[in-house]
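Hi W.,

Here's what went into the run:
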Amino acid sequence: MEGVMESVTISDIQRAALRISKYIVRTPLLQSPLLNEQVGASTYVKAESLQRTGAFKIRGALNKLLLMNEDTRANGVVAFSAGNHGLGVAAAAKITGCRSIILLPKTAARTKIESCQWWASEVLFYDPQTEDREVVGRSIAELKGMTLIQPFDDDDIIAGQGTLGLELCEQLKEQGAHPDSALVSCSGGGLAAGVSVAMTHIFPAAQMFVVEPQGYEKMGRSLRSGKPERNSSVPDSIMDAIIGPRAGSRTLPILRSRNVRGLSVSDEEALYAMAVAFGTLKLVVEPGGAAGLAALIAEKADFSGQTVAVICSGGNVDRNLYIRALEHGHSPRLGRLDAPEPDSFPGKLPI
Amino acid sequence: MEGVMESVTISDIQRAALRISKYIVRTPLLQSPLLNEQVGASTYVKAESLQRTGAFKIRGALNKLLLMNEDTRANGVVAFSAGNHGLGVAAAAKITGCRSIILLPKTAARTKIESCQWWASEVLFYDPQTEDREVVGRSIAELKGMTLIQPFDDDDIIAGQGTLGLELCEQLKEQGAHPDSALVSCSGGGLAAGVSVAMTHIFPAAQMFVVEPQGYEKMGRSLRSGKPERNSSVPDSIMDAIIGPRAGSRTLPILRSRNVRGLSVSDEEALYAMAVAFGTLKLVVEPGGAAGLAALIAEKADFSGQTVAVICSGGNVDRNLYIRALEHGHSPRLGRLDAPEPDSFPGKLPI
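Here's what came out:
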């Protein structure tokens, strides 16, 4: 294995888990027989949408902040983010008692803006059409003497997100499951890289897949080319949590050395996966957080008869989009959830 | 305390927990700072909607079936149910390897019917307008030589449901919380009675409340009169899981000896609580399962400044009703979730 791979090790992740465990939720690993029947695979879903702040991002942020020296931390932290990373940093800052400034695109989901406003010391907005978030973020940090917290290209962040993979593997073992495949949403690759370190350590036979929005397959291309690629086109996608502009330079070598493969899903496939998670698992999952489940349901690789671990990584979705998922989620393959039920309220009541 | 109270003891519940733990999910106890701010109380939500079969009922059913002698169990079991109890019995039967016949009202939520059809050996329907489910259930059991599993008036069922209360108390202790109040949905009272035994044993200072649909306050009236009352009127309610006709004769003395108080909520209040659970906890909760949360949000008693434990007991809700909750859930007191967000799809995308 390449030397660069050792940038984040299993013991980094184990130490991170000890460091952050008292501040986070040990999210459950769930099964649904209806889901298993639908996808033809024994599926274990890690319900990380139930994490504090509604996404996994608080894991990396807490690990990072708890590793900073106290004086630096006391000056405060800055994060730029489409939402979940900002929320995670703001919450970690509040928990560790330091100031935070979160820079959000003015188009962020309202549920993320409101939550950020609760956790953060200050929320600022930028215009994603005309401003570069990295430039704005850096200049704010410099001006205020605060530390900019990277969303993914930072080994402490990667190790923190890896605690999700460690927990997943522990729970799989507790339930006697040996995964053939593991599916995780991916943008910059912080979560995927951390999870891949834990997964390949504990279940070396498992094939890991990162799942991206169609048209945003920067990591898939990076895994093939061997260098961090950017999203060249910017089509619309509802998977707002995983449409960042570039793959990480520290995450890519980790993923590549572990033979992680790239898949992608459409908005329609993500919406359908959200509807399936609602019906079978009783989980609220946001579009980007449902990408892994969507790839399984839409058979983006051959998972039939396998044991599959899927991470549902976030649940921060606005109501209107969620309603849209429940109304219009459909799949050419699966009939069960296609047709809306006849209206069961207030006419036909199950008395 | 009265002798009859000792029908179910804390050690019955502890033994039930050991008996069933490997078959069930240890559902998480969640907090949301946004929810705490909204209700003005430190709120701990037990996410039992994530239990296998989407509700707590499998706990009691498993305890009952595992305590039956093997020959009796091998003949199979029958349950009549508006849905969740039937699902729980069917799943427990499949897990313990025996046959099950589940009798459902033909008006049951489709999500419950489909799940029952997956778990049960056989699903039969009755007409709630013209048939008495207890009479039909008993005659089927007699005809087939199977055992009828009561939904609540059975000490083994009560002890099994009590494991939810035991788990809740353990998790509260782990999180350093000492509840002033605890809120739980109630129909016949099996869950409430079991939880009350655990809660008053571990947190004797906590005041427990059972929450019923408005117009269905049979347990509230029973707690005052001292005898099991029936629902006299049958108005429409969307809380299909908790509109059974009568309070339990074995559950009532348990609840009464522990000074449990009765509250009730409207359909609108339940719908709003479902929308709050979606937005703040990322949980899919069914109307009857949201009654406790609804009573807290609608301030049915003075909870301000308290530490409050709430059980969200089920998540089996059809899509159309859930969409209705998200679209129309509103509250005179709470502005935050009142107005639907401007449509965030597909026009305004958070890129």
